[in-house]
Amino acid sequence: MAETPEVFEGAETMNGQAAEGTWEPKILGILCNWCSYAGADLAGSARLQHPPNVRIVRVPCSGRVDPQFVLKGFLRGFDGVLVSGCHPGDCHYAKGNYYARRRLTLLTRFLETMGIPRERFQFQWVSASEGARWAESVREMTERIRKLGPFQGVGRPVPLLIPVVARQAETQPVGVEAQ
Amino acid sequence: MNSPTEQIRTEARRLLESGDVSVVIGYGPGSTPARATPVFVRRAEDVDRLFWSPACAQNLALYVREQAGRGKVAVVAKGCDARSIATLIQEKQTRREDVYIIGVACSGVVDPGRLAPAGVDEGTLKSLAPENGGLKADCGDRDVRLEREMVLKRACLFCDTPVPPLSDTLIGEAPPLQPATDQTLPEDLDARREFWAEQFSKCVRCYACRQVCPACYCKECFTDRLPVGWVSKRIAGPENWMYHTTRAFHLAGRCVGCGECERVCPADIPIQTLMRRMAGEVDALFGYRAGMDPDAEPVLATYRDDDEGPAE
Amino acid sequence: MARVGVFVCWCGSNIARTVDVQRVAEEAGRIPGVVFATDYKYMCSEPGQTMVRDAIRDHRLDRVVVASCSPRLHEPTFQRCISEAGLNPYMVEMANIREHCSWVHQDKDAATEKAIDLVRMAVAKARRDFPLFRNEIPITKRALVIGGGVAGIQAALDIADAGYPVTLVERTPSIGGRMAQYDKTFPTLDCAACILTPKMVDCASHPNITILTYAEVEEVTGFVGNFNIRIRKKARGVDMEKCTGCGVCYSKCPVKVPNEFEEGMGERRAIYVPFPQAVPNVPVIDREHCRLNNDLKCGVCQKLCPTGAIAYDQQDEVVTEQFGAIVVATGFRMWDHSQIGEYGYGSIPDVISGLQFERLMNASGPTEGKIVRPSDHRPPKTVVFVACVGSRSENHGHEYCSKVCCMYTAKHALLLKEKYPDTQSYVFYMDIRANGKGYEEFVRRTIEEYGANYIRGRVSRIYRHGDKVVVKGADTLLGRPVEIEADMVVLATAMEPQEDAKDLARKLGISTDQHNWFSEAHPKLKPVEVLSSGIFLAGACQYPKDIPDTVAQASGAASKVAGLFSKPHLLSEPMIASVREEDCAACGQCVQVCPFSAIELVELNGKNGASRRAARVNEGLCHGCGTCVAGCRGSCIDLRGFTNAQVLSEIDALALA
Ligand SMILES: Cc1cc2nc3c(=O)[nH]c(=O)nc-3n(C[C@H](O)[C@H](O)[C@H](O)COP(=O)(O)OP(=O)(O)OC[C@H]3O[C@@H](n4cnc5c(N)ncnc54)[C@H](O)[C@@H]3O)c2cc1C
Ligand code: SF4
Ligand code: SF4
Ligand code: FES
């Protein structure tokens, strides 16, 4: 498959904005084309007002959502990520959302291991007729994240030259408690 | 009863003489008594190159995968190694009928990197042998008693499958061991984020963890697929974070906790703390543990109607 | 370097009122890769589209971003537009700044910021666009219908009438299915044979229909438009060409065995036609019971046959043929409830099934239409009908409703009374489900005009008492126990999928539900399709159905087939998955997750003769959901139009802002 040879090499994130005191939550939305994207369209045609904080990426199906997309969202400094697909049983491709459910429920828990609270990642079902549900979820998530404050980023920026890492002397391993 | 070493040799001889397998992959003595080296034995008269000791740390499933498609092989496997082989079977990287598993019940293997901090000079070490629940190190001038917690490969302390769940012959018996609980990770989420930021800032992206892992069998790792843009090559905290979190996700339902990645990591990153959490979540959510059943469908390649998920 | 043009639409005031479109265009002009940016009142209007085409020419654009309404609305418009200017239609991306922005926000600054972001994302994606194509896939315009019940018959006739050849494969010696066994059909009580037989004959004489009875599908490969199907024609022992259907052979065959068509209540010979109106009217030799196959002397039929049609040594014939579409119409079977022994079925001779009752009522049945007790051949005076036997019962593994039992039970009670006015019937039921045209009226008539005594409640026990059958139960409406001394009990047992449904599903690569009914592609919107293209469902093989629903679905399936065949060729979807075979580790996860069974592992001839495996996507089957892509760690499979690189660049686009 052809791929454009442009290589993205940056590690810039959006976190810088926080300092200016004009911080607004920035939320990445990844929506399946057939239900949730259509639901968001419906919210539009019904003029259901909601906060302008979500940026939507359209994918064919929630089954297309690689958990890494979400990780990448946090890497890039989004304050929250919202993935939305068809309700179980309603996926345009019948089963995509069942696999998505496994992957993303696992991701929700894993993010906590990484220190990213559940509140920053929302995985939900919104059907093509649920414009109001979409608008409500954006409202709700934006408010929630506003309360949490800006995401602090995922990794410490380190100088490019890595100091040689010496093994620390240790007799007792970290955090092990024999039972 | 014959020693595990003798039993391994007898079994290897039988397999090679009968022509059942073309090679026996096992361990031979390494540069010091705390180290073993993988050996490939192809002739019955060479079986004495094989041995068993608490130094047999490597996960030989790695070589089973490399040998796949070249006829039947026999392999010496600890609990974790056998589970790795099962995942390889599940993922079509080898076939059950192509591996003969010489299972060894294991009570933990030594991480030579931890000897010095425990006060043992690997250079003068004469021998290393199990001794009631711990190890005895003969350092030439003196014997040193070593507790498991001090010198074992860290993952071994958390091991709950010392006996291979899958084997064709089994050597030894289940040791009476209780897996420890990993308390490395802080409870507070902010502290956790800080913890990982700190840990991953040490990563030099040498990819030793990936190279040593039997489950990392992609022909080209996502980290090398630069045009796709998953993660850049830059050795920087956030990029390292992306590498490790992604790798953890890629190993969900695959990592068996052998701890080789952690053992070989030059920066001492507690990779297994991450992997163990992931494995725990997979088990909690889907009742699935990697490599326990070679016939099971890989956990993320299947689903159940009543899987946990968002509210309807 | 890509040359992107950005076109920002005002949509009259729809967008321009809340979004500063000029600013958006200005900002867009500064995005790396953008060589032209402008705004216009109505981008989708003819002048708007002309503007796009002109800009493509004047600024040598190779990619276009339109910031306007939802791509679900106008993506096709702009795809057409840019292809008129010579670009590949898939080199356009849309930023949805109306539905997702101007219509839902009021703060102009915030909305404008967001619109700029959305444009950035679209540009980032567009820069990674590449041309996509639809490939032509030829269609073999012949249909295969599996199962010759009323569903299969109707589907075959409709497809044949549309002008396409059809092969109808039926497992038993005759087409007709269950309906051929019935006497009269609810709710109109027209005689089943009178409405079915003409259709069977039409099938036989239709120039476009080939009927293969006593035949089964053995293997299915290929995909929509191009299925290769192996069919086994079991040896009939009778030459179809020579036989004239005179019937001498079976009138003289000395072997008698229970007749399946009569539900075990009558007999047939070792050479037989299952019923007089059978199509084709050519007997088969049941090898299991034929004397010659049991080392006994015989040969009677051969001696008697006037045309020399008997061919004892005929062998099974296996043919492989090409078809473009498949209709599955394999129907149902009755739950064999004798194994459970509940209600005395199988042990008390006068406890029979609804299907057996049909045969007793049928003028060409084992009793020539006289309703008599199997035990002593006396007409019953009191008959108890029990509905929902095994249906709607988790204990019996059928949580579902068999849907037709309420109706045929009413039919039975009505016909019994009509034939024998001095009989009394009782019906035990859970609920009466009579939701079809004329159904409720029919049940009411059975109760009110034909005096059937309907008792709401469960039967607890049925046992023999002298020559009577005692039915004990509870009337839950009156809240009291009931006990009826009956002469005969008729059980409306649950309908079940065919025993080999799962096997057939596996051969076809389609899925079944937990009970093994075939699964439709969508419960509401695609009730006739299955997830694999080119395969359609008709009749009771999907779920219990009555004849009107069966026939409607069969015609639906036929029109789907005709629709498919009316095209010169199929076009593959442009946005489908494809594999980088050189990187594929052949772990098979994509194969496993694909809802459409579109991926298989194929053997590749690697370097120096070594073979290795890799996944390969069948373009005819892939629907482009991308479920496989998200499961591939090595990014060896990617989705055209929504590649990993594209999605990631959209995410990156904002961070770099
Ligand atoms: C007792 C009873 C009475 C009923 N009375 C009425 C009524 O009065 N009115 C009404 O509307 N409905 C009635 N029904 C419902 C009616 O029977 C069904 O609606 C109808 O038979 C469904 O037709 P079908 O073609 O889908 O299936 P079937 O009639 O079951 O036909 C399926 C055909 O496929 C063949 N087959 C199966 N598997 C294979 C295979 N693997 N390969 C090749 N061939 C195969 C079978 O041999 C059979 O010929 C009644 C049902 C029952 C049980
Ligand atoms: S990730 Fe580490 S512990 Fe897990 S299987 Fe791979 S090497 Fe072993
Ligand atoms: S994109 Fe969907 S339909 Fe196509 S091969 Fe992948 S999983 Fe199957
Ligand atoms: S199409 Fe919406 S989740 Fe699959």
| Sheet/helix structural class of chain C | alpha/beta
- End-to-end Cα distance of chain C, whole Å, is 20 Å
- Estimate the helix proportion of chain B, in percent: 25-40%
Question: From the coordinates shown, what is the CATH architecture of the largest domain in chain C?
Answer: 3-Layer(bba) Sandwich
The 3D shape of chain B can be described as: globular
Q: How large is the share of residues in beta strands of chain B? A: 5-15%
Percent helix of chain C, as a range, is 25-40%
Describe the sheet with the most strands of chain B: 5 strands, mixed
The CATH class of the largest domain in chain C is Alpha Beta
Number of strands of chain C: 34
How many runs of DSSP E, i.e. beta strands of chain B? 9
Radius of gyration of chain C: 33 Å
Strand numbers in spatial order across the main sheet of chain C: 10-7-6-18-29
CATH fold naming of the largest domain in chain C: FAD/NAD(P)-binding domain
Number of helices of chain C: 17
Structure class of chain B: alpha/beta
* Total domains of chain C: 5
Low-pLDDT residue intervals, each spanning 5 or more residues of chain B:
none
The CATH superfamily title of the largest domain in chain C = FAD/NAD(P)-binding domain
